[in-house]
Specification:
The complex is a heterodimer. Chain A is built from twelve helices and 14 strands. Chain A is an alpha/beta fold. Chain A has a six-stranded mixed beta sheet with strand order 6-7-8-3-9-10, with helices on both faces. In chain A, strands 2-1-4-5 form a four-stranded antiparallel beta sheet, covered by helices on one side. In chain A, strands 12-13-11-14 form a four-stranded antiparallel beta sheet, with helices on one face. The longest helix of chain A is centred in the middle third of the chain and has 17 residues. Chain B is mostly helical. Chain B has one domain. Helices cover 72% and strands 1% of the residues of chain B. Chain B has a two-stranded antiparallel sheet. In chain B, helix 3 runs antiparallel to helix 5 and helix 6 packs parallel to helix 11. Classes of the chains: A alpha/beta, B mainly alpha. At the A-B interface, helix 2, helix 3, helix 4 and helix 6 of A face helix 1 and helix 4 of B. Bound molecules: adenosine-5'-triphosphate and magnesium ion. Adenosine-5'-triphosphate binds next to strand 2 and helix 1 of chain A.
Chain lengths: 317, 288
Amino acid sequence: MNAVEVRGLRKSYGELEAVKGVDFEVKPGETFGFLGPNGAGKSTTIKILCTLAKATGGSARVAGFDVTTERDQVRRHIGLVFQDTTLDSYLSAEQNLKFHAELYGMPRETVQPRLEQVMKMVGLWDRKDSKVLTFSGGMKRRLEIARGLMHSPRVLFLDEPTVGLDPQTRASIWEYIHQLRQQEEITIFLTTHYMDEAEHCDRIAIMDVGRLVALDTPAALKASVGTDRVTIRTDNDALALEKLPHAVQTEDGIVINVEDGEAYVPKLFGSLGVAITNVSISKPSLDDVFLSYTGRTIRDSEQAPGMPAFMAAMARR
Amino acid sequence: MTTTSPAAVAAVAVPARTAALDLRAIKIVVQRDLIRTYQDKTRFVSQLVQPLLFLFVLGSGLGSLTKGSTGALDLKTFMFPGILATSTLFTAMFSAMSIVWDREFGFLREMLVAPVRRSSIILGKALGGATIATAQGLIVLALAPAVHVPVSFGLIVTLMAEVFLLSFTLTAFGLAIVARITQVQTVMGLMQVLLLPLSFLSGALYPLSNLPQWLSIAVRFNPLTYAVHPIRQAVFNHLDITPAVRARLTPPIQWFGWDVPNWLQLLLVATIGISLLATAIRQFQKVE
Ligand SMILES: Nc1ncnc2c1ncn2[C@@H]1O[C@H](COP(=O)(O)OP(=O)(O)OP(=O)(O)O)[C@@H](O)[C@H]1O
Ligand SMILES: [Mg+2]
């Protein structure tokens, strides 16, 4: 049974179609990254999966239950960390978690040990009596993650869990996520705008203006967008270019696109016959993947349909 | 950072929904409102200022004017039951309003995504509002001796029950109104518009005898009237006044010449409360 199963999912807000028919599945135990420009429909998809919004078409199952007909079952098995904070800042950290435990009807004897466990995990145990009001943004996020884990959900949804956090906190949140995967049987479904974080995922899906445009492992996606780029500087560019029919001259030097940069460079040194003064190899990153699939760097739903991918790629060079 | 070993705490299983669990959900929603109120004592007290101002300042000031018509009875004594009833108005409405706050600050989502009935959450809100408003009523009631109302245990119990019923209905009313509102500012303005007319048209501050026709009709359409009257009756049963004065100050409420009995009035308030609550619940059950 898949942890998440989405078939032809659609969602319209009046005229605006935020999700335009999306299909994918997430396997149990997987960490699944959901990427896409602003307004792509990521949060909307999560809202539907969490039963907070009704799909206008298609179907979705989470933890084996249908999100429209078995709403309660779905809710019982998911944990949620929303994009915007949903804590009661006038209550203490502990009170927030206790509220959650009661609302979810956790067996009473499990509440205290579980509370201690999740609070210690996110390093907030010694602040449990402080009002959330006094917490920094990072502490609030960590508390929300702890709360989302209180009832041992089978699927944890994290909508931009690390947005606006400093590198240390981001790193520590990823540490919890890895720790979680070892400790509990949990599927993690997250959205992020940080490509370095997407690397942590088993698979990533890229969404753009309501559609899935790519879905695979990070490595496969990177391989799909192209080859390694070897850039060299030489004593005599003109001569070098003559010998390298596929190379192009750029501001940075001569650029050659090859399958395997590391293997190519030693051969190049041996065969070029022009002195090479500088060499660099760059591999496609998830940034490249993202840009090649979604086209441009900044996007809002208000903007007109995008400029073609190649133009964005040009702009970057 | 402390790390717990994997085996330390077993995974929790969220049990299937039962009535007991819904009850727990209701309880925690009420409890949260009580904690929040306890933490914000300033608000709790300041919500009492206006009714007390009406009672002691307006009541004393106008008292000299009305001496002729109230007989030996102090105007403050007359107004007391009305103030007791209307003091719940602001608090009950504020409690209902807090759900808009929760919506704006996100906490409502935490509640709405939990595996409990929406009705449990809304009912919890209504009961929370009613409890807080009744607690304030108890404080107003403690001032009874100051306005020459003799208190007995029986009277306190009756009044508190009536005040609880009224404030439950008012909170439900508030919840039905705010259900679709997403901004705190909107709701603030709306409350401003609603509160004073509701209390002015309830017979809380003046007797319902010899009113101009339009006013006596408006008063009959105000649900608050049907709570103010029984509360005043309960207080007046304990006063030592002549039947003539009593008849002038608390004439029975009539529908087309028929005296509406107190029990029916209270039943009406309860029915309105329950149907408003049902309306509110339906509104909150709608999914985006
Ligand atoms: N409640 C709503 N009413 C109307 N339109 C909405 C609503 N929620 C979202 N939308 C629209 O749906 C589209 C997708 O929004 P969504 O929040 O899912 O984007 P997102 O991918 O999460 O973006 P971001 O990365 O900025 O969080 C946007 O165009 C947004 O304006
Ligand atoms: Mg979003």
